[in-house]
Design a protein that fits this description.
heterodimer; A: 307 residues; mainly alpha; two-stranded antiparallel sheet; 2 strands; 2% strand; B: six-stranded mixed sheet
Chain lengths: 307, 410
């Protein structure tokens, strides 16, 4: 009987004839993926970090080494600090509301009722449609003259409904709502998956102990859902912080810059103004902020896991 | 056998002579934009006709869709394969200048061709040197409902008087459409600023740009007037900061505006929608005692300094800018003519074309400077702040001018 080729190869590895050690062979197998990661992920990050320490011309070529020039420029702009604060408010508001609504929807969809499958399917729709298309749909919905929202309000007797995108506060909230609307399905589905993984016996045991619905939620559901909640909110935080399409389509950062967040500002500086140096510095700041948040979330996640 | 050898020799001589003829030709490569309406036949016919008129020149027209035009052109240039000529969005000239690849064009075209192009259309001029000939251009117009007002206002003051009479929010008739939403082009402000004989920058004697003048007398008056329309007289649609140009266009098409300023493209939309009211067009109004002036936006044709056939490329430009070829081109792309000699053509005697052509001599283009996109946003943000009551017109324009000057290191 002939020895299959892979067995031969294994034997050769063990004997050290084909490759010197087994681990060398393993590293070689990892090589393509490593090269891919270096070329397509780490090199761009390195390149942006490098760019942030240089003066860069309009064509993106590095000119003079100026390690803090771009950062000093940003720090000297009062609107930059406002943009950072606004980005944090945008992210915190959007993620917390998405989490709350997503959890409520997941709890409702976890109850057995007729048409549950249809309801679960319908919840996915905002997630299934692309974000730019959703943003454009909401742009029409918010239209002061012909939009569905104001039309509905007029039908309900509100003769002078707000012009949503005209004023700083309503425009900011209108943008946040669209981001929430787009993000709810993800939260709901992830939480639903988490809920379904909780053993039913725990609820039955709690009932035997006389626990109310609230106590079951507080002491059974929430602790067992916390792991998945940390992952979902971390992902949602990263996406929301970097959410570009909605604001760019609805208000382009206006009126008077009151809906501008870091990512729209980076786009403005890089692709519209071609000021690559400050844009790279902003990208590095964004990266560091998100890295800090991710590390904090990860530590919390592993602590939860350890507990 | 001898016959075969003789035949081979004849063929060889023919081939060599033909190849010699080919090598004697000078090649001119032109990057050509596929504008809407421009047919492939046009480029083929142009190429053939030019080659027939100039047998010593081999013309190669490289047709490229507009969305990928810039990337493709830059790839050619960076790769050392720059064409001899190329259509560009005039603003790209700044990038090409930075790369140091553009040739001053005036010396390579005939005086007749140059004289046939109105100076107002020479947007591709930097520091007083002409680098681009206009390929396509459009001035802006005042659209008005001729069923509500009998005639178009000539001045902004007149427009305000009319607006106060016809503004009727209960009937959803807003007198003046005003765009206040952040947009890549500061068009709305330009209409009022240019109409008050103002401009965004001081033009220095050498043709370069000096300090920002958005807060000079003309700039402040224009801004004050815009703010009065919005906040004092309230004759615009409410919530102007929510309206982009496209939304204003929809509002006019729905019959909710009486006066609205836009480009020639709006007329095509109004015709396509067959709007149920009468409308007409007129030159943009100006302020009393000030010259009429419209905004003009152009695309240009540039020559590259790496070209080995500049003289031949210049001959192509003279050919392309001759009446028969420009007329067909303008008809296909739907822009008004860029050459003076075609202004009286019967085809361009519709009201929209007539008004667009009529405004060319006094028209002004956007400042051609690399900081302009950022300056544009600075002005927009301050205008929005003024409309929202966060700043006074004076504060807003002073802040804008100071920020723009600081940006330019002044």
């Amino acid at each position: 009987m002939r020895t299959p080729p892979f067995v031969k190869k294994e034997m050769m590895i063990r004997k050290g004839k084909f490759w010197k050690t087994e681990s060398t062979f393993a590293y070689l197998l990892l090589l393509p993926a490593t090269v891919f990661l270096i070329v397509f992920m780490f090199y761009p990050i390195f390149s942006v970090i490098l760019m942030s320490f240089f003066q860069v011309n309009r064509l993106g070529q590095l000119m003079a080494f100026d390690p803090l020039g771009n950062y000093r420029f940003l720090a000297g702009r009062p609107d930059f600090w406002q943009i950072i604060i606004r980005t944090c408010v945008w992210t915190a508001l959007s993620v917390s509301v998405k989490t709350a609504i997503g959890l409520i929807i997941a709890l409702l969809l976890n109850i057995k009722f007729t048409g549950r499958k249809l309801a679960r399917t319908l919840v996915i729709i905002p997630w299934a449609s692309s974000v730019p298309i959703s943003a454009m749909m909401w742009q029409w919905t918010y239209n002061a003259d012909f939009g569905l929202l104001n039309h509905t309000l007029r039908v309900l007797g509100i003769s002078d409904p707000p012009i949503w995108l005209a004023f700083p506060r309503t425009a900011f909230l209108a943008n946040i709502w669209v981001d929430i609307w787009c993000g709810i399905p993800f939260m709901a589905l992830v939480f639903l998956a988490g809920l379904q993984a909780i053993p039913q016996e725990l609820y039955e045991a709690a009932e035997v102990d006389g626990a109310t619905s609230w106590l079951k939620f507080r002491y059974v559901t929430m602790p067992l859902l916390s792991g998945i909640m940390i992952v979902a909110t971390l992902l949602s935080t990263l996406w929301t912080f970097n959410s570009f399409n909605i604001i760019w389509i609805l208000t382009m950062g206006g009126p008077a810059g009151t809906t501008d967040i870091l990512v729209t500002h980076i786009y403005r500086y890089s692709f519209l103004y071609q000021r690559w140096g400050p844009a790279a510095a902003m990208a590095v700041i964004t990266f560091m902020m998100l890295l800090t948040v991710s590390i904090a979330y990860a530590r919390r996640y592993f602590r939860e896991g350890a507990a | 056998m001898k016959k075969i050898a003789l035949l081979c020799a004849v063929i060889l001589v023919c081939v060599l002579s033909v190849s010699g003829l080919v090598s004697a030709q000078t090649r001119v490569r032109v990057m050509w934009a596929e504008y809407d309406g421009l047919t492939p036949d046009y480029a083929v016919n142009l190429e053939q006709a030019f080659e027939a008129a100039h047998p010593d020149i081999d013309l190669e027209i490289i047709s490229t869709p507009w969305p990928e035009f810039f990337d493709r052109l830059i790839t050619f240039v960076v790769g050392g394969q720059a064409p001899d000529l190329s259509v560009i969005g005039t603003r790209w000239l700044l990038d090409l200048m930075e790369m140091g690849v553009v040739e001053p064009i005036a010396q390579w075209v005939s005086d007749e061709t140059l004289a046939n192009i109105d100076p107002a259309l020479r947007e591709g001029t930097i520091g007083g040197v002409l680098y681009g000939l206009p390929v396509a251009a459009g001035t802006r117009l005042l659209y008005y409902r001729s069923d509500i007002v009998e005639r178009a206002p000539e001045t902004f003051e007149e427009m305000l008087d009319m607006a106060l009479k016809v503004h009727n929010p209960e009937e959803r008739i807003n007198a003046v459409g005003m765009s206040g939403m952040l947009y890549p082009e500061l068009t709305e402000h330009a209409y009022y600023l240019f109409g008050n004989d103002g401009y965004y920058f001081e033009i220095l004697p050498d043709g370069t740009y000096g300090r920002s003048t958005v807060n000079d007398e003309a700039g402040l008056e224009a801004m004050q007037f815009m703010n009065d329309l919005v906040n004092t007289h309230q004759v615009t649609q409410p919530g102007v900061t929510a309206y982009s140009r496209d939304e204003l266009q929809d509002l006019f098409a729905a019959g909710n505006l009486v006066f609205f300023m836009s480009g020639g493209f709006t007329s095509a939309i109004l015709e396509a929608r067959d709007v149920p009211f009468e409308w007409s067009v007129a030159p943009l109004p100006h302020f009393e005692g000030k010259p009429q002036s419209s905004l003009i936006v152009t695309d240009s044709m540039v020559m590259f300094n790496t070209s080995l056939a500049k003289e031949e490329a210049g001959k192509f430009l003279d050919f392309f800018y001759s009446d028969p070829w420009r007329l067909e081109f303008d008809k296909l792309v739907g822009f008004p003519p860029v050459t003076k000699s075609l202004a009286d053509e019967p085809y361009f005697q519709t009201p929209v074309y007539r008004v667009m052509v009529e405004q060319i001599p006094g028209a002004k283009g956007w400042p051609l400077m690399e900081e302009w996109p950022e300056a544009n946003d600075i002005i927009w943000d301050n205008i929005s702040a003024i409309f929202l009551g966060i700043k006074t017109p004076e504060q807003g324009m002073n802040d804008a001018a100071a920020e723009i000057d600081a940006l330019r290191g002044m």
